[in-house]
Amino acid sequence: MRIAGWLERWAHARPDRVAVAEPGAARTYAQLAAAADGVAAALAARGARAGDRVAIALPPGVAFAEVLHGCLALGAAAMPVDLRLGAAERARIEASARVVVDAPVSAGAHARPRHAATGRPGDHVALVMHTSGTTRAPRPIELTLGNVQASALGAAGALGHDPAERWLCPLPVSHVAGLMILLRCAIHGTTALIDPPPFDAAATAARIAGDGVTLVSLVPTQLARLLDAGLARPQALRGAILGGGPADPALLRRAAAAGVPVAQTYGLTETCSMATTSEPGRPETAGRPLPGVDVELAPDGEILLTGPVIAPAALAADGRLHTGDLGVLGPDGLRIVGRKADTIVTGGENVAPAEVEAALLEHPAVAEAGVYARPDPEWGEAVVARVVLRDGGGDDTTPAALREHVARRLVGYKVPKAVELSTEPLPRTASGKLLRRALPAPGCR
After folding, report:
1. By C-alpha distance, which of 266, 274, 263, 265 is closest to 309?
2. pLDDT at 405 > cutoff 80
3. What is the Cβ-side half-sphere exposure of residue 180, based on CA atoms within 13 angstroms?
4. Residue whose C-alpha is closest to residue 133's, from 309, 268, 326, 286
């Protein structure tokens, strides 16, 4: 058996079921298992051994999936590389790999390698993922086979499991949220549908409506574009899994009106993707913890996590993951308030930018909002907002009117001292998270 024997199981039990597909190409479980063995042998011939890192510098697609599972068959750690990175940053990431795969692998006629991994299988490092870098440079996170399996089982327990699942992935597979779709499906013997870049909202909406898609993972920007493209009441879809940060309440209302059952999630690279999720169709919060995951709040509101989905090296001395995120626990689940590092101290009062952004986004004419601190001689830090309007706005979308809109919802010290209107989209990571550190103009921080 492989260290991760998922493909071997389903190649015998469901050999003809499609394991992974992209437009124009597909592999059944029998085909993918055979390809993975061939890739493992080819990687071994290039010097890779169990425990080594193998960098996968391939676009999302069937070839990527074959190399991913080839790494797992060999016992090597798969390390996806974001192809959008600059040459220097990409070189830094690839430098830690024994082998870099930047073209589809031809299996050849190599003998299947023997595994040399030691220790408990669950402790074996299966993935090396790099954080999205919203507050600092991306850093590698080692996720074990136990983390991956616990995440897949927890997601199925929280979201339900359809033996005929068809999970659509329009997210980067160099990020854990996208990659885990491929692995959850492999663990459960279901079908992963890859939607390669660039994101085409009309084509993706048509695929959701007509390709039997039961689940799709999205960031809020993608959901908004799908609704703009006319996605409505997709017959087979039982859940649109939304991550990458708290969603605009107006967006959630639009999705509900269109019959798109959204489930908000909360998670990190260190938690192997989602740690909490709401029920599809009830996305008011980030929901409850996955089975096996415990959520606590520190006295300052920081979210603390324990459970088998957490990368071992991410645990602090107290045995918990200190997320750096601020939250509120209520009867309807976990509500994300913001990041500790983003907290603005104005006049001695603490302000979470995400809370102010949510208030701004309740205005129907506000498409995007980003809030940050600007040095101020009177307040120490002043709350400032940058806003992108829909269709140019109107009389009720002047900076003064938007400040009044926030003042009707939040206490006075949280109201932005200034609102800047922008016609350019706000800076975001590849996974859709707001890059708040890129908001201030040079010299303003």
Report:
1. 274
2. yes
3. 32
4. 268
Ramachandran assignment for 442, one of left (phi > 0), alpha (psi -120 to 50 degrees), beta (any other): beta
CB 242 within 8 A of CB 264: yes
Dihedral of alpha carbons 285, 290, 291, 292, sign: negative
- Sequence-separated (6 or more) residues with CB below 8 Å from residue 218: 170, 171, 226, 240, 241, 242, 243
What DSSP string describes 39-90? HHHHHHHTT--TT-EEEE---SSHHHHHHHHHHHHHTPEEEE--TTS-HHHH
pLDDT at 422 over 60: yes
Q: What is the pLDDT of residue 434?
A: 86
The residues, ordered by sequence, that sit 6+ positions from 5 with a Cβ below 8 Å of its Cβ are: none
Q: What is the pLDDT of residues 63-115, one digit of tens each?
A: 999 999 999 999 999 999 999 888 888 999 999 999 999 999 986 655 565 55
CB 293 within 8 A of CB 301: no
1-30 pLDDT per residue, tens: 456 789 999 999 999 999 999 999 999 999
Domains 6-337 and 343-438 share a fold: no
Place of tokens 């999705």: 255
- Enumerate the domain spans of the chain: 6-337, 343-438
For domain 6-337, the question of CATH label 3.40.50.920 is answered with: no
Prediction pTM value: 0.85
CB-based burial label for 117 (10 Å; 0-12, 13-18, 19+): middle
**Under a CB-based contact definition with an 8 Å cutoff, are residues 49 and 214 in contact?**
no
Q: What is the DSSP-derived secondary structure letter of residue 170? A: -
Phi, psi of 356 (to 5 degrees): -70, -40
Question: Most distant CA pair in the chain: distance in Å?
Answer: 73
Dihedral angle over CA of 249, 253, 256, 262, nearest 10:
-10
Per the structure block, which two tokens stand in for 193? 């549908």
Identify which of 344, 354, 309, 304 has the alpha carbon closest to the alpha carbon of residue 324.
304
CATH number of 343-438: 3.30.300.30
Q: Per residue in 252-310, pLDDT tens?
A: 999 999 999 999 999 999 999 999 999 999 999 999 999 999 999 999 999 999 999 99
Spatial CA neighbour of 178 closest among 197, 159, 157, 203: 197
